[in-house]
Amino acid sequence: MEWIQAAILTTAEGIEPVCGRLMTIGINGFEIEDKDDFLTFLEENRAAWDYVDEDLMREKSSDTTKVKLYVTQNAAGHEQLAMVRDELSALKDADTDGHFGALTLELNTLQEEDWAENWKQYFHPLKVGDKILIQPEWEPIAEETDRVVFTINPGMSFGTGSHHTTQLCIEAIERYLKPEATVLDLGCGSGILSIIARLLGAGDTVAMDIDPNAVDIALENARKNNVDRYTAFAGNILTDTALQMQFSEKRFDLVVANIVADVIIPLAPLAKNFIKDDGVFVASGIILPRLDEVRGALEENFRIVSVHEKNDWGAVICRKK
After folding, report:
1. Is pLDDT larger for residue 122 or for residue 69?
2. Please, what is the end-to-end C-alpha distance for the chain in angstroms?
3. What pLDDT was estimated at residue 312?
4. What is the pLDDT of residue 303?
5. Quick one: DSSP state of residue 65?
């Protein structure tokens, strides 16, 4: 299906009236690009990340505020655009002081694959650690291999194996996983870590993510790899007491959390309750400037076994005291 991306040029003051006009004509889904909101959002949601790409910062920190919407490239979509233009014209007439900016419309035609498919050109088969070959489902295996093949379509979730934090976790799983060990993957994303653990001989395996879409993708990737004894939950492990109790009652041999520092720090005292005596906790997703801070929080609850670094990222391997 072909789509039209429409970007309305406005100002921070214009966001609310523009979105209000869109909703009056039945358009409820849109994206807002505003420098001040973007910077405030980053500051107020530090638990979601420790690092933001510089190109993204430059793009999102521009002075232009945009409200983006998408309509289908057909008669119905063009009718919606005509209604949008009428609403913008009326809003511009009412904005006698010019507080709402240009209120002009920029159009860009997109194929559906541009949203979810084009990134595939950058994702190719990847060897990780000593045992794993990560294979995109849309590429055939080029040659015979004695590695364990993990086939993946990560969708829109984090976790293709190309990121250093994911590789650090896979390498740790290779080192510490014992046959039939139970595994818990906190912040599972595409399910890459928990599914690879199962392929390497883990027993019952549980994955969890705050994003229900990630859980769906993890379950689909488990099916692609013919993995059974695999369960996935959506929830926030920091606040969901039911999940905390469930994991504490079961307890696991190996727990992996490839998240960020601001989640791992409050997670540490909880995670010790999810791990069997002398079980292993792999904490990754830690940008190096915060590694000492995370290590300090982990040392209050675990015995540090080793610390590993790859480029600007670190992982800490712990055992329950």
Report:
1. 69
2. 55
3. 82
4. 96
5. E
Per residue in 134-193, pLDDT tens?
999 888 887 889 999 999 986 655 677 878 889 999 999 999 999 999 999 999 988 999
d(CA 165, CA 163): 6
- Tell me, what amino acid is at 220? E
Burial group, residue 284, by CB count within 10 angstroms (0-12, 13-18, 19+): buried
Phi and psi (nearest 5°) for 8? -95, 120
Q: How far is Cα 303 from Cα 280, in angstroms, rounded to an integer?
A: 10
Q: Give CB contacts under 8 A, 24+ apart, made by 291-298.
A: 291/316, 293/261, 293/265, 294/261, 294/264, 294/265, 297/264, 297/265, 297/268, 298/264, 298/268
Q: Are 151 and 138 in contact (CB under 8 A)?
A: no
In terms of Cα–Cα distance, which of 19, 54, 59, 61 is closest to 40? 61
Token pair listed for 62: 């521009």
